[in-house]
Design goal:
disordered N terminus; 8 strands; eight-stranded mixed β-sheet; 42% helix; alpha/beta; single chain; globular; 245 residues; 7 helices; Rossmann fold
Length: 245
C-alpha cells in the first residue's frame, strides 16, 4: 500500500508495457515519479513493471484496457485506493490498422481505430479526472502525430500529404481536437492538456522503422508531463518544437 500523501508525483501511462509507453514510464521514473504501467495484458504489464523496478524505479502494474468501460473504472478505483490521487496521465495507447486507401478502407478498421485512439482517450481521461483534480499540478499528455496535423497533411508540398492513412490520420486529428476541448475546460483549474508527437520512432506501430530513437521519441511526452506552471496548454510538442494543428 502506497501512502496517499506521498510527495512523489504519480504518473499513469497507458499502453506502457512496451515501446514508447515503456520508455516514457522509464524516463518519468528516472525523474522520481511513481510510475503506473497501464497495460491490457497482465503478464506483459507486470513484466514491464518488474523490469523498471529492477532499474531501481518505483513502478507498479495497473490492468487497463482503454476500450473497456469496466476496465477503466476498475483502474480508477485501484489508483484511488492505493495512491489517493494522480498527477500525470499519459494517454499513450494507440493503434494503426490502415490496410487500404481511404476509398476502400473498411468501417470495421475505422471504428476499431477510433475506439482506441479517440474514444479510449476520452474514456480514460474522464474516469481519472477526479483523481487528477486532487493534484496541485496535474498534467495530461495525449500521444498525437504530425499525421494528424491538417496544416501539414493538406499541403501538397509536405511529404505527409502523400501518406494515405484514413483511420490513423483522422483519428489523430480528432484526438488533437479532443485535447483542445479538455485544455479549454481545465485551463482555469491549472490542469495543462497537450499533445506529444514522438516523431517517426521504431515501434510496433511503425513496423519497427523510424528516424528517431525510442528514447528521443519519448522526450516530448516527458517534457509535457513535467511542465511547470508557466508551461503551455493546448499545443502539440514535437522533437523540433511546437507544430501546427
Amino acid at each position: 500500500m502506497t501512502n496517499p500523501t506521498t510527495t512523489k508525483r504519480i504518473a499513469l501511462i497507458t499502453g506502457a508495457n512496451k515501446g514508447l509507453g515503456f520508455e516514457i514510464a522509464r524516463q518519468l521514473g528516472q525523474q522520481h515519479h511513481t510510475v503506473l504501467v497501464g497495460a491490457r495484458d497482465a503478464e506483459r504489464g507486470e513484466r514491464a513493471a518488474q523490469h523498471l523496478r529492477g532499474e531501481g524505479l518505483d513502478a507498479h502494474f495497473v490492468p487497463l484496457a482503454v476500450t473497456s468501460d469496466a476496465s477503466v473504472t476498475a483502474a480508477a478505483t485501484l489508483i484511488e485506493e492505493r495512491f489517493g490521487r494522480l498527477d500525470v496521465l499519459v494517454n499513450n495507447a494507440g493503434i494503426s490498422l490502415d490496410d487500404a486507401p481511404p476509398s476502400q478502407l473498411s468501417f470495421e478498421r475505422l471504428i476499431e481505430t477510433y475506439d482506441t485512439n479517440v474514444f479510449g482517450v476520452v474514456r480514460v481521461t474522464q474516469a481519472l479526472l477526479p483523481l487528477l483534480r486532487r493534484s496541485d499540478r496535474a498534467r495530461i499528455v495525449n500521444m498525437g502525430s504530425a499525421m494528424g496535423s491538417l496544416t501539414y497533411t493538406s499541403d501538397p508540398e509536405n511529404m505527409r500529404s502523400g501518406i494515405l492513412l484514413l483511420a490513423y490520420a483522422s483519428s489523430k486529428a480528432a484526438l488533437h481536437s479532443v485535447t483542445v476541448q479538455f485544455a479549454n475546460e481545465l485551463r482555469a483549474e491549472g490542469i495543462k492538456v497537450n499533445v506529444a508527437d514522438p516523431g517517426y520512432a521504431p515501434t510496433d506501430l511503425s513496423g519497427g522503422q523510424g528516424f528517431n530513437t525510442i528514447e528521443e521519441g519519448a522526450g516530448p511526452a516527458v517534457r509535457l508531463a513535467t511542465l511547470d506552471e508557466n508551461g503551455p496548454t493546448a499545443t502539440i510538442l514535437a522533437l523540433e518544437g511546437v507544430i501546427p494543428w
